[in-house]
Amino acid sequence: MARVLCVLAVGLCVCVLAQVAAETLSRSAVLRAVSDAKKIIDDAYTYSRAETLRRVRTRKDLNPSDLLRLVKQPARETRSAVRAADYLEYTLQLLQDRHHIHKRSLNATDLISAEDLETIARLTGCAARVRQPNCKTTPHLNQYRTTTSVCNNRKFPRRGSSNTPFLRLLPAEYQDGVNLPQGWDPMLQRNGALLPLVRLVSNRILSTANEDVVSDNLYTHLITIFGQWTDHDLTFTPHSPSIRSFNSGTNCDESCLRTEPCFPIRIPPNDTRFGRNSDECIPFFRSAPACGTGNTGHIFGAANVREQLNSLTAFLDVGQVYGADEGLARDLRDLTTDSGLLRVNEGFNDSGRELLPFSPMKDMCASRGRITNDTNAEEVPCFIAGDERVDENIGLSSMHTMMMREHNRLARALAKLNPQWSGETLFQEARKIMGGYFQVITFRDYLRHIIGPDILNGPEIGPFPGYDENVDPSISNVFATAAFRFAHLAIQPFMFRLDENYQDHQKWPSVLFHRNFFTPWRLVFEGGIDPVIRGLVGRQAKLNVQDHMMHDELRERLFEFLGHVALDLAALNMQRGRDHGLPGYNSWRRFCGLSKPRTLEELAVVMNNTELARQLLELYGTVDNIDVWLGGVAEPFVNGGRVGPLFACIIARQFQRLRQGDRLWWENDDVFTEAQRESLQTTSLSRIMCDNTGITEVPENPFEFRPRGAGYTRCEDIPAFDLSPWRANGEDRQGHPGPPGPQGPAGPPGSNGAAARAAFAVRLGYNFPHPGKPIAFKNVIYNGQDLYNTKTGVFTCTQPGVYQFDFHCTLYQNVGNVDLRHNDKLVLHSFTTQQSGYVTATGGTILQLATGDTVYLSANYGGNGLTADSFFSGHILFSV
Ligand code: HEM
């Protein structure tokens, strides 16, 4: 009923508007506008492509914003999606201009008949983009993911698929209510105050000299780059490919004019970098609109505001390895043999190990001569992988290389196990295992350190609740544009390179960050990926502290190697938030059920810092206007995490939705067999490193920083990933056991009775205990009689006697303790000591046990902060 009323109301409204304009636009006017818009957009695209190629080929006039634009350039399917949206948007703008529709309340679409609207949608290509696909004809839908994730959700087939709009958790707030960014007209107030220039905010709040960076005592630089790696599985917001304004023909990077798609970043007077040249701008290109949004929303019945596209799938499906676009996915595969492999570099290798293939374009990565000052240096093109940003830094490129190798390792091992499998099956099964790996590692090892154990176990995430087709997994706009950019403040100013002993590499020293952007040649000619991977796990992450937020490598020298105006990542993040119409800081605090600070005193409490609160208010005038990325990264960390409460909430909700809304999530029934799931749980980044590099010793948990010597393990001591559950039909290819052999010599004398039998020693391993519940130590050191159950964490006595139990646990918490319980009753509270952010909980006792008695450990709080090397042991002293 309510819906009918609504439709009537809309109908009435359109009627009234139509009367205001007296008539609807003629069909010929509409068709002319479509054809003119297409021509103007096509010209702008063609010009932009030719101009970009000219700049790359001649390497003249290239500048850092070209690089960002090229990286964010829509390719293949995304390009068609963006082009269609641009056609549609511009058609309506032409109609608006030509027919003098300047009333804010009146849109061109109000004056176009439903039939003409449909024609426009069809001619621009937008209709095809929203048509529902038919999932019935998709092969292997229950077994494997489609490349684009279309049909992951059978009821809403496009949910979570590539090239769909980001989800809005809160309505957008554009300056004109529909389309224009906040700050487009700098003299218009928002909530009663003018918005400060983003570069001014960056200078005043974020600026940090490289040498003032504080390192994180707990985490390695790998946790930062793993975050970027994960982001590149989940979000990519394309720009429009046009480098000049559709309206005026102005080149975005040559002018400070705000004209679609140019939204340049203005420089404040007396800027530390630009000085007197503050009339210059840092070029900025608006993110491309999605079809049927912004001025065109009416066409598809969508909300009438501009939306941005995510060209990647929303799922943790390792799209950065395989591509989220059919064409790219095909290009990445080695189809010359039927072996299920990914393509590798044909010209170069890394001490015999595979390197990524090169991009077919001669491109931006050819900077070796310029950076090394050696004009004779051999240049190489960029690497190509499932995500276009693969070359952004050599840490990220090394991750890509390692994961491509792991796919190929798996495909080869599966081929040995199942020689009857086709290349397609080998490829899809290896890809599926890789998907499982990353779902396990992200939830088990990564997220806990970012959003902290309390939130990970709280109502926002908690244990896996099972698949729900009504949960929309799409990535939210605020996640991509603000919250998951938190780690821009955890990047070190160096990309470290270490030798076999985890010491600074003498031959290939660490490089300043701005000298490692888009430099695949460093992996080809400078010792490969091993020194870089060691640098990631052997050195600390940067710590985001309120007075040392973003160092100069990212604020003053982003992509500087191309000369001219280097970019400022902090300013880009805030300008992007305004471009996307993100609501301000306080709206998001309210969304997450957090307090809404209004005064200096209240903000000082939230930030736990009066000086910072004062600076923020001085810049913004009101807390409501603080750019959400800035407000989020300025908050103090939640317990055990590396983000404040606001971003913890947004990140937690995102990961919960992309898990619960994923029909092919690894823990769902019928995705993997139980034995396969068991295997997947033992995966670790350490094992993957050991299997795919020349590194022989690794930290057991590579996200947790340990000085060399403690917590490192030899590769041969890490169990290999068990692929046997992937043997088809459980066939035993080793054949039948032979006849019994001759009797061997007598063994050593046995001990008498049960005394020697009842014993166990276990380590926590990569497990994720729940506070208050028995802690299941998964890694068995000794458990000869299986009396300790590694699934439940409970030791059960079968031999009455007197037993001794000992434990030693380390917790990444400020507080925490561990209890030893006998038949659920507390027997012993651990002895705890605290040192630099860790709690050590130890204990030991002697107990008399009867048959069936149980003993286990539990942690009342801080349980999920336990480190992998925590251990528990018990053995019988004598029988009674
Ligand atoms: C390691 C060096 C890194 C560099 C140089 C870098 C640089 C950039 C740049 C230039 C953008 C586009 C800015 C814009 O125009 O809006 C961006 C976007 C982004 N970055 Fe980073 N980033 C790095 C690491 C990270 C890390 C560690 C994370 C997260 C853990 C991250 C998360 C993101 C996200 C979510 C986006 C938005 C992506 C999109 O939807 O297109 N980045 N980054």
UniProtKB/TrEMBL annotation:
<dbReference type="GO" id="GO:0006979">
    <property type="term" value="P:response to oxidative stress"/>
</dbReference>
<protein>
    <submittedName>
        <fullName>Eosinophil peroxidase-like</fullName>
    </submittedName>
</protein>
<dbReference type="InterPro" id="IPR037120">
    <property type="entry name" value="Haem_peroxidase_sf_animal"/>
</dbReference>
<dbReference type="InterPro" id="IPR010255">
    <property type="entry name" value="Haem_peroxidase_sf"/>
</dbReference>
<dbReference type="Pfam" id="PF00386">
    <property type="entry name" value="C1q"/>
</dbReference>
<keyword id="KW-0479">Metal-binding</keyword>
<keyword id="KW-0408">Iron</keyword>
<dbReference type="GO" id="GO:0005615">
    <property type="term" value="C:extracellular space"/>
</dbReference>
<dbReference type="InterPro" id="IPR001073">
    <property type="entry name" value="C1q_dom"/>
</dbReference>
<feature type="region of interest" description="Disordered">
    <location>
        <begin position="726"/>
        <end position="754"/>
    </location>
</feature>
<feature type="binding site" description="axial binding residue">
    <location>
        <position position="488"/>
    </location>
    <ligand>
        <name>heme b</name>
    </ligand>
</feature>
<keyword id="KW-0732">Signal</keyword>
<feature type="domain" description="C1q">
    <location>
        <begin position="753"/>
        <end position="880"/>
    </location>
</feature>
<feature type="compositionally biased region" description="Pro residues">
    <location>
        <begin position="737"/>
        <end position="748"/>
    </location>
</feature>
<comment type="similarity">
    <text>Belongs to the peroxidase family. XPO subfamily.</text>
</comment>
<dbReference type="Pfam" id="PF03098">
    <property type="entry name" value="An_peroxidase"/>
</dbReference>
<keyword id="KW-0349">Heme</keyword>
<dbReference type="InterPro" id="IPR019791">
    <property type="entry name" value="Haem_peroxidase_animal"/>
</dbReference>
<keyword id="KW-0560">Oxidoreductase</keyword>
<dbReference type="GO" id="GO:0046872">
    <property type="term" value="F:metal ion binding"/>
</dbReference>
<keyword id="KW-1015">Disulfide bond</keyword>
<feature type="signal peptide">
    <location>
        <begin position="1"/>
        <end position="22"/>
    </location>
</feature>
<dbReference type="GO" id="GO:0004601">
    <property type="term" value="F:peroxidase activity"/>
</dbReference>
<dbReference type="GO" id="GO:0020037">
    <property type="term" value="F:heme binding"/>
</dbReference>
<dbReference type="InterPro" id="IPR008983">
    <property type="entry name" value="Tumour_necrosis_fac-like_dom"/>
</dbReference>
